[in-house]
Amino acid sequence: MKVLVANRGEIALRIVRACHEAGAEAVAVYSDADAGARWVELADAAEHIGPSPAAKSYLNVDAVLAAAKASGADAVHPGYGFLAENAEFARRVAAAGLTFIGPPPEVIEKMGDKAVARRTAREAGVPIVPGSDPVSGAADAERAAAEIGFPLLVKASAGGGGRGIRPVAGASELAGVLATAQAEAAATFGDGTVYLERAVPEARHIEVQVLADGHGNVVHVFERDCSVQRRRQKLIEEAPAPGLDPALRTEIADAAVRLARHVGYRGAGTVEFLLAPDGTYYFMEMNTRIQVEHPVTEVVTGVDLVAEQLRIAEGESLSVSQSGIVLDGAAVEVRLNAEDPDNGFAPTPGQLERFDLPGGPGVRVDSGFAAGQRISPFYDSMLAKLICWGADREQAFARARQALAELRIEGVSSTAELHARLLADPELCEGPVHTRWLEERGDGAP
Amino acid sequence: MATIKATMPGVFYRCPSPGAEPYVAEGSDVSEGQTIALIEVMKTFNEVKAEVSGTVTKFLIADGDEVSMGQDIMEVDGA
């Protein structure tokens, strides 16, 4: 197999590694800004796909397809972000006679429309947050809100990943927020459809990793807890979710498998849930791609998720069965971003003057960069992911604290110090925390 | 004749959102402090404000193009 890696940064390198391990060839793509990047250097071949702005390169379907054709690739791995959840892209990859490493386009579409995804989850017997069908005007929304109750959220149907969500505290705010949310959704996603959903206070973000092959095998690879968030963006992720009752763990994982089976899923995917303090859980959304935080799952189960993606794409069966997937220890991942936490998390592009990475037992670093390279302003701010494994959560956290103490990043700001502080925080160490925890304590405030 | 310069590197946008009307058109007047464009830096959108008042005579960079720190964005005929 020859795989076009249609992404950049650490995930591009992650896929190159998986290809090589599987005996496949990897073809990198790069924009002007990414010439000479690490994943380009380590791939077997590389294709230039355009100018630096993502819209003209990594999001340019024609350019990516032309690169696939020119390189003689027979499969395309979209990574995460960019074109990964673009059903039209998946269709065009298939129409070009290539294998899209991901689920069928109809499944991407179904799960990408949040209102349709909710309906689908309900059909599969998976609990959803009480909410409405798409609402049109204020009168419609008021009727729906009366049933749902306040506080509630106005959510864009085309949103996801924490984007396109606006809170409404009480009835008097509803009409105003609705109008803003519709306009914003239309501008951001090209679709102004919104619906209402009850807000679940003090909820945790629990997500289940699933794998499905083309032979009817669907398994879960346990859950991750991604409750440490700032403005609905994940900062720290863990596997397994701390303090989760084993019976509840099984119930949530089974719900995820049920949904994946129901939609005819294929590949690696993640079903996200909200878990309320009383143990009730609700389907939030399904991400039809590999996830940023997938390594925590890999290190606590030994399952190589990207390798499984490649196997599935080649028409093989999963290499693991449900009973063969067992939890071993605990893992934590921190996202090291080129942002300045003391300045409202402002992004800080620049030259990586120094980039000394940590090591030692249980320490894994996934990064697309090396010292001396430029962190460009055109893409997201992630410098690296630090993943630490321990026999238990306490050891995983201790290793992460040590690893952060070893890390030296100069030339750009980073979120390393914030992470070091958080990983020593008694409340987080005690765990679990809910998704508003970080903001409520004033850390990571804008 | 004055030029307005980019205060950060990134991607230059003339409109508040895709398909929307541009902030300012050539030939229109701007006043100091007015938002005239956006620069996207690592997925964060930053407003570019006019440092001078006057009439916009020419855009020196196209919508969606790469912009570097200090690069001239537009020419303004001072009022």
Automatic annotation (TrEMBL), chain B:
Give UniProt keywords alphabetically: Biotin, Fatty acid biosynthesis, Fatty acid metabolism, Lipid biosynthesis, Lipid metabolism
Checking InterPro entries in the record gives:
AcCoA_biotinCC, Biotin_BS, Biotin_Carboxyl_Carrier/Decarb, Biotin_lipoyl, Single_hybrid_motif
Q: Is Magnesium tagged as a keyword?
A: no
Pathway listed for it is:
Lipid metabolism; fatty acid biosynthesis
GO cellular component term of the entry, any: acetyl-CoA carboxylase complex
Domain named Lipoyl-binding is located at 1-77
Task: Supply the Gene3D superfamilies for this chain.
Answer: 2.40.50.100
GO terms of molecular function: acetyl-CoA carboxylase activity
Per its UniProt record, what SUPFAM superfamilies does this chain match?
Single hybrid motif
Q: Which BP terms from GO are recorded?
A: fatty acid biosynthetic process
The family database entries (Pfam families) matched by this protein are listed as: Biotin_lipoyl
Its biological purpose: This protein is a component of the acetyl coenzyme A carboxylase complex; first, biotin carboxylase catalyzes the carboxylation of the carrier protein and then the transcarboxylase transfers the carboxyl group to form malonyl-CoA.
NCBIfam families according to UniProt: PRK07051.1 (NF005457)
Q: What is this protein called?
A: Biotin carboxyl carrier protein of acetyl-CoA carboxylase
Q: Which organism is it from?
A: Prauserella flavalba
